[in-house]
Amino acid sequence: MSSSYVTSSGPKIRYALFGITTLIFILSLLLNLLLPGFGYDSTGFINLWIHVFIGLNMLIYYPPAIYFALKNRRSRFDQAGGEVAVGVLITVSWLACVIFQLIFTSWELCDDPDSGFYTGEEGCQAGAIALSVLFLLNLLIHFGWTTWIIVLVHKRSNNKKERDEVYKISTHVLVRGGSRQIEHGKISDGDEEGLYNLRS
């Protein structure tokens, strides 16, 4: 890979996204469990299980992806196409959380004694709004992350066949830099054995 295209900003942004989304996820989960009226029955219970689903996806994907990036190793587990698939899955899950939480907030279930969420505590409705904001933030970050990877793939390919090949490249290599076309030859300079070389 030509050194003129290699950049350190892409990997740093990706590492930051791993960290930021993990922190926001943990905060969202804790609020969902600890704030009055949440995590139980109806909407809160549904959001709790969506959280569990998202957490499992992050737990399965994040640690190996970070490991392979730090070690600069190629793996089928860390292909750009896989990161897009995980990103879409998590984005759609956060969208579901946003929808359910907006329903919760707009219906003011905290103030309805028959809703199953009524607690008589002032923090309930404020908590519902805070969770709505956090869920929306998660949604926007994951959507932006996934869109970023897709845009990089399209910038480095001219047709569907080339895009299919770029999607097989390690995400770490993709975000580190490349060119707009694929040279159909294996990289032989030790950068990433077995990956398609990128050229301008």
Automatic annotation (TrEMBL):
Task: List all membrane-crossing ranges.
Answer: 15-36, 48-70, 82-107, 127-153
Domain of life where this protein originates: Eukaryota
Listed name of the protein: MARVEL domain-containing protein
For this UniProt record, the keywords arranged alphabetically read as follows:
Membrane, Transmembrane, Transmembrane helix
Keyword Transmembrane helix found: yes
